Amino acid sequence: MIKRILSAIFLFWAIGFLAFATTLPQPSPVSGDTAAKTDAVIVPTGGAGRIARGLEVLDSGAAEKMLVSGVDREVKPAEFAAEFTVDDARMECCVTLGFAAVDTRSNASETAQWVKTNEIKSLRLVTTDWHMRRAAGELSRKLPDGVVVVRDAVTSNPSLSSLFLEYHKLLASWAAGVVNL
Q1: Which among 30, 33, 25, 32 has a CA at the least distance from the CA of 41?
Q2: What is the C-alpha separation between 64 and 94, in angstroms, rounded?
Q3: What whole-number distance in Å separates Cα of residue 157 and Cα of residue 89?
Q4: pTM, whole model, 2 decimals?
Q5: Rounded to 5 degrees, what angle do the CA atoms 65, 145, 32 make?
Q6: Rounded to an integer, what distance in angstroms lies between the CA atom of residue 180 and that of residue 131?
Q7: I want to staple 107 with a disulfide (CB 3.0 to 4.6 A). Which of 10, 76, 101, 137 is the partner?
Q8: pLDDT band for position 180 (50/70/90)?
Q9: Whole-angstrom Cα distance, residue 69 to residue 96?
């Protein structure tokens, strides 16, 4: 009996991992008829291409403001602007650097506070494809009711070990959500 239960658990885990690894989220259009315009774009730091994609969304007019969550405290706004070629006017009006977050869960908390403060009703979450499900899940638990989230994944080529680790983080995140941690 125990062997059957363990076999069933392993089978469930393996099918889940296979589904996770083969159906990574895709980018959302930023222009054209199918593009979703949002009040803001949210970019948690940590993966290549995320900030560039967030700025592309901002520059296309698909969002009016951008929060970059989880920025290292030593980064100065002028350094950020120089690194990503953002002019002073754009930084002043539209880009907020968030320094409070250190992980995905605190990115969600920092984002929720910023959304509430700025009265945001819709946002575009820009993060790496392998990170999207967990980031969106954490964010959905923290955001005020009624805030619409458009998922916009940055395509990557993750290693098997990265997918393996992220899958287990996702399972842990789901479990924590179930028990309200």
Answers
A1: 30
A2: 7
A3: 35
A4: 0.92
A5: 45
A6: 21
A7: 101
A8: confident
A9: 8
